Amino acid sequence: MKPLKGRTALVTGGTRGIGAAIAARLKADGARVIITGTRPARAPRGLEFRAVDFSDRAATQAFAEEAAGLGIDILVNNAGINKLAPFAGIAPEDFDRIQDVNLRAAFLLCRAVLPRMRKKGWGRIVNVTSIFGVISKELRGAYSASKFGLDGMTAALAAEAAADGVLANCVAPGFIDTDLTRRVLGPRGMAEMAKRIPARRLGKPAEIAALVAWLAGPENTYLSGQQVVIDGGFSPGVLARRPRRLDRTVVGPVGRAGGAAIREGACRPPGGRYRAPHRCDRSQQVA
């Protein structure tokens, strides 16, 4: 049985790596799949292709208007770019370009396809973030800004759209074995990185695709507003070594704490979800 038969999916950045694996999985599950890339290309058999440069605002707006009429049931915002730089050395134009591709394009596409999804009473949106939208490190200022922002945007969207049958979530991949990763890290870097991951290996694009397919499929009827980290246990180990900070938040956002009140002083790990109030070490508190 094809669980996505009759559905139309749009996967941005679907020509290689994680995006290509997602597109192939959704196609195998029965969906009509449209992918985007930056250069004109022949789409893999059975897929449709649109050439879009999301760093070009006019091109992005034009494609968003087109997407509104494509009958999209499933939107996967996977396209993304990065440029490493020390914080004081981030060029404003590079910062803007990263936000345009990673965040602004996703915003415009979500906004474009949402009305039809709401009208039909069914829709699935999966925004691909990163573990650097949960934790971060040096040289990732612009990239983490875009990925943390994408997570926050998705949470707000989920809170608004769930009542209309539209579920929106993020998937945050860790270190994944792609051609790009191999080129950047090289064999020695790949081996060293695997040692730092509790699972002792990098993830596979097909594993990310399987999670996206579940979130986008008929078995997901209730999960919305979440960022699902898939990183072989890497980020929990990092978070465990960092001090938690306290937020003076009184009410948790819908979809993150079910709209329940959280008393002042509830703990939240960096980039994490709000948890139920509990006794905290006052040494962890911040002014």
Verbal overview:
This protein has 287 residues and is an alpha/beta fold. It folds into two domains: 234 residues, NAD(P)-binding Rossmann-like Domain (Rossmann fold); 45 residues, no CATH class. It is 38% helix and 14% strand. The chain is built from seven helices and nine strands. Helix 1 links the parallel strand 1 and strand 2. The longest helix is centred in the middle third of the chain and has 29 residues. It is globular and about 45 Å long. It starts with 7 loop residues before the first strand and ends in a 19-residue tail after the last strand.
N/C terminus separation: 56 Å
Average predicted local confidence, pLDDT? 87
Strand portion: 5-15%
Strands ordered across the widest β-sheet: 3-2-1-4-5-6-7
> Helix/strand/pairing class, anyone?
alpha/beta
How many beta strands in the DSSP annotation?
Answer: 9
The fold-level CATH name of the largest domain is: Rossmann fold
Q: What's the structural domain tally?
A: 2
What is the level 1 CATH name of the largest domain?
Alpha Beta
Rg computed from alpha carbons, rounded to a whole number of angstroms: 19 Å
Ranges where pLDDT stays below 50 over 5 or more residues in a row are: 246-287
Bin the helical content.
Answer: 25-40%
Shape: globular
| Separate helix tally | 7
Question: What structural keywords apply?
Answer:
287 residues, Rossmann fold, 2 domains, 9 strands, globular
